[in-house]
């Protein structure tokens, strides 16, 4: 029987399990699917951990989520077609849920459809090798044309290997920090950390915090620090400005020249005093468990190198990579990708020749290069998601409506970065209008599921 290994049970891995499970429910004979998840539960980044550094098994901690994180995009833009927010919560809820609420939604679909049955928890994939002397393969000594997947089972303490015909890599790409060095770091008398290790903004109350970066982590971690009482928040944005009207106590500066003691000097010759540095400088695509020739190498962009249809690994079509793009669209795009990957694996989709795939990738990368602003990037990822949906039997997703919602959301952010979450959006599936949350985000200190769902 054909065997498929899915690595990771975060949103992407769960999308892949849901895609196979749906085909099975519709009467298809599906391959044997085994999902390996190194954490003790599903949900990926949404499964919050207080740990940083190494986990209880000596593995690198995967989590980059922090306390008090609220969705930064409208939940209506990521809603599952086959499991709506109304299905899960039974009533309309706000558009910008805190982490625990989105986690509950993810777990809800997984449990309703029995996806846990496919998952081996506390099991980390240590290596994936393709057994082929000729076909771009590596040193593997298993059956020709199959993958040898080696796992560590952290419950039994055993290492073992087995063979698979296909591998789906769903390990995310927001866990391995991109951490620049600046002169003076060695002697800085305060804490220097990457956003990956940021857990609780309260730690920075009454402190002068330097935030490096100009993207989502920077704006959100900086906003958190301001909300939870930092004395000042200075954003260093080397390709700035971010274009927000920051509240009093926040300032934006250009790139860093050097740090001297507690003074940071910027490239425009100005300087400021700081107590701590949070580097919100993004992440690296990092797949050390894949044999070198099987590793995806791409920047954090919408059109990834090496991936036909943004999913199929062009050098070896038996490997799928999910969710490796930069993300406006998330959960529903992951579903669209997973349906496509499933159909490619099950032979329902005929993949073109390697040359045609390479041409498709080059054209797609060039097309992204022609986009000049964020609105264009939103449309680009919307059109991509729509094309994937149309290639399979995935239920329709109204990407025109979602693109428009993202643009409205961007307008709200520009109008007031601290208040954009105090808006409601409409579900593309049920038409439900989200109520405005009972407490403005800047005053909402309780991020529990109970408080979010309470009617006040
Ligand atoms: C701080 C932060 C906030 C975010 N907020 C939002 C938001 O508000 N809205 C939104 O839509 N998106 C948000 N995102 C984007 C996020 O990428 C997606 O929501 C989603 O989590 C991606 O799912 P994934 O399955 O690709 O990866 P992940 O969620 O990272 O899951 C990958 C899984 O693979 C497992 N794994 C890794 N390596 C191995 C291995 N070797 N063996 C076995 N298992 C392994 C991990 O343990 C993990 O469970 C945020 C990202 C970050 C970093
Ligand atoms: N509340 C939320 O929902 C929330 C919160 C945080 C993060 N997220 C998600 O997390 C994901 C990752 O976002 P991210 O902001 O961490 O990464 P990102 O979008 O890749 O941005 C990285 C930032 O770091 C800057 N940078 C990179 N190298 C640098 C260097 N050497 N010196 C100075 N600046 C440097 C980049 O600027 P250049 O343009 O100059 O390279 C960019 O502004 C996104 O999907 C986001 O939506 C969500």
What proportion of the residues is helical, as a percent range?
Answer: 25-40%
Summarize model confidence as the mean pLDDT. 97
Bound molecules: flavin-adenine dinucleotide, NADP nicotinamide-adenine-dinucleotide phosphate
Using the CA coordinates, give the radius of gyration. 22 Å
In spatial order, strands of the major sheet run 3-2-1-7-20
Spell out the CATH superfamily of the largest domain: FAD/NAD(P)-binding domain
Q: In the residues, how many domains can be counted?
A: 2
User: Got a strand count?
Assistant: 20
Shape: globular
**Strand-residue proportion:** 15-25%
Q: Main sheet?
A: 5 strands, parallel
Q: What is the ordering of alpha helices and beta strands? A: EHEHHEEEEEEEEHEEEEEEEEEEHHHHH
Q: Span between N and C termini? A: 55 Å
Overall CATH architecture of the largest domain: 3-Layer(bba) Sandwich
Text of the CATH class of the largest domain: Alpha Beta
Low confidence ranges: none
CATH topology of the largest domain: FAD/NAD(P)-binding domain
Structural class: alpha/beta
Determine the number of helices (DSSP H or I, runs of at least 4 residues): 9
Explain the overall architecture:
This protein is α/β, with parallel strands linked by helices. It has 2 domains: 3-175 and 283-403, FAD/NAD(P)-binding domain; 185-279, FAD/NAD(P)-binding domain, CATH 3.50.50.60. The chain has 9 helices and 20 strands. The strands form 6 sheets. The chain has a 5-stranded parallel sheet, with helices on one face. The chain has a 5-stranded parallel sheet with strand order 9-16-10-11-12, covered by helices on one side. Strand 18 and strand 19 form a beta hairpin. Helix 1 packs across helix 5 (331-345). The longest helix has 17 residues, at 374-390. The radius of gyration is 22 Å and the shape is globular. The termini are far apart. The model has no long low-confidence stretch (mean pLDDT 97). The structure holds flavin-adenine dinucleotide and NADP nicotinamide-adenine-dinucleotide phosphate (NAP). NADP nicotinamide-adenine-dinucleotide phosphate binds at residues 69, 71-72, 174, 178, 180, 195, 212-218, 220, 238-239, 280-282, 300, 327.
